[in-house]
Amino acid sequence: MDELTELTKLGLTKGEIRIYEALLELGETTRTKLAKKSGVSPSKIYDVTNRLL
Q: What's the gap between Cα 1 and its chain centre?
């Protein structure tokens, strides 16, 4: 997947990439839905999204 490679080159972690892609699909959403879609633990969602800002 070229997008994964490019995002990794930008310094994003796998978790950040999964959340980023899930947000692109879901748009405005809840932490629970984002966790389900991305596969990232709900307890880590806030930490990871803060790193994306």
A: 16
